[in-house]
Amino acid sequence: MEGMVTPATQAMAHGVSALVHTSFTELCADDWDTDAVRLLLEETSPDAMSVALQNPAFAAVEREDEVPIGVLLMPKPSYLSLLFVHPAHLRKGVARRLWEAARRHIEAMHPDTKTVELNSTPYALPAYRALGFVPLSAEFIRRGCRITRMACWLPARALGAEGSGLSHSPGARLLPDVLETARLRLRRPEARDAASIYAGYARDPEVCRFMIWRPHVSESVTRAFVASCIDEWAVGSRLPYVVSERGVDEAIGMLEARMLGTTVDLGYVLARSHWGRGLMPEALENLADIALRTPAIHRVQATCDTANVPSQRALEKAGFVREGRLARHTVHPNLSPEPRACFMYATTRP
Ligand SMILES: CC(C)(COP(=O)(O)OP(=O)(O)OC[C@H]1O[C@@H](n2cnc3c(N)ncnc32)[C@H](O)[C@@H]1OP(=O)(O)O)[C@@H](O)C(=O)NCCC(=O)NCCS
Fold it and tell me: 284, 303, 311, 330: which to mutate for ligand 1, most atoms within 8 A of CB?
């Protein structure tokens, strides 16, 4: 039977400590030097766990017969310090259930937290990747062990394939990696784009007004976001293109194609300094045209807030038709915590 995730309390400190020690010793300790092993065991002793479980942002266990078989601890909303699963219970979804519970909790209780970071050992890296974390750093040595800093961007996960009906592969890579219009070049994102995206628009409240995310508070948030975009191309259910002007390989916006079976759903944003030049309609029209020339794709659509007139105009100029109004459709957190009405626009095969 699938285990239940329950809050981890101070009363569980002994059981949690024993679990961490077993799991760490059997699975990861080989990668660490002796002092680092000793330090981790000290830092996860029953006494230390009792303190750590006193007032965490989130702490949970999954138990079997009352014995913890998985534990996740977040001392603050933006940092995951421990995630351990008992070696006898690997590959049963324990870590995923714990992380999904943590993510839901952080999204509900700390809506301002947009990224969760952690330090991964080499052993855990693939597991964290599978949970939606992406590396923020190269591997480095910290207190005697090899560490990679990773982050998960919470809105990206919420928009991702899970639970939204997105298909992973049928539509994937039906669109090209690079697309050129008269004035623009659209291409896959690269880590270096974070600087221009942050400086150009991601921190601009005016640009973000109708977006489903809040303005980025630092470039590291944008770096995590760009890392998640790079990962999306590997998965293939969302293809976020960087928009740049031809001949100037600098990100001035993004146009994302989400593959929904026979439909492509679009989202887009442009730096304020480039508004009003008809650039986004040009990108939208071109992408829609290429998509609809692909036999598997029959419809290209986009929704936008009923108050977002510039976006409506951009879609209309790109040949999209307004099909209707969707009440209470999307939360635009910079305007209201409640879902707001949107217009649905589409261009389709005849
Ligand atoms: C929507 C957006 C991508 C349009 O891109 P664009 O390349 O500027 O599109 P256009 O040049 O065709 O302008 C579209 C409309 O924007 C408005 N607009 C133009 N210049 C503007 C400016 N300097 N300031 C504010 N609005 C402006 C006009 O209403 C224009 O329509 P019009 O041509 O009928 O007058 C851009 O405004 C943007 O990035 N907005 C913020 C992100 C966003 O809302 N994305 C869409 C989410 S659904």
Answer: 311
